[in-house]
Amino acid sequence: MSGNSCDKVLVQQVRKIGPTRRSVSGSYPFRGGQAIQYESTLERDFLIRHEFFLNVLEIIPQPVEIPFVADNGRSYTYTPDFLMSLRGPHGSTIQRVLVEVKPQALWKENWRRWSAKWKAARRFAQQQGWSFGIFDESRIRDQVLDNIRFLERYKRLSERPKQSDTLMHALRSCGPSTLPALFSCCSVAEDDQRAWTVMAWHLLAMRLIDCDISKSLDRTTIFWVTSHE
What we know:
It is a single chain. The protein is of the alpha+beta class. The strands form four sheets. Strands 3-6-7-8 form a four-stranded mixed beta sheet. A hairpin with a 5-residue loop joins strand 4 and strand 5. The N terminus is likely disordered.
């Protein structure tokens, strides 16, 4: 999907992010490809979290400039942090969300001062058939992000574990299962269960199997084969 794929407005990065003394800036290699610029650790964590979800198709940084009139009567432009494109249920539609990433304490302190630009962003998004959302720590730094960070170490295995095809076959045959159920289904010896557990985390990190990532990852986690529809 290209940056100008939206029907009603041309979407592309309208502002480049340079070094800043106030926060951490950089580029995140989204799914190993497109380098997405960010200008805070919270924005970086937003990208890490949403990269995991296969229904997230694209994230464009600094996507549009939105004119608005502030409470002082002066005209300004506002550039939201990201435009996120999501695959709808069964892949039937593409949903887009205009995203502002802001620490909770900061947006609460400045709610009145920033409300004019956020109202303008919400109107602009509605005109395009999009939605607008403010993402703070409560929507980013949660159990999901903790789990994704835990799985990072299992992406970098030197080679794909030999049991992976067996586990994938077992999940297809037995249906959604916990690790103990899979061990039983595949007659895995107790001495081999640690290696199988590592392999399960690897397959989850590589998005070949799935689970409810919002819950703690342990022996009660139910896995299933990922659907890419």
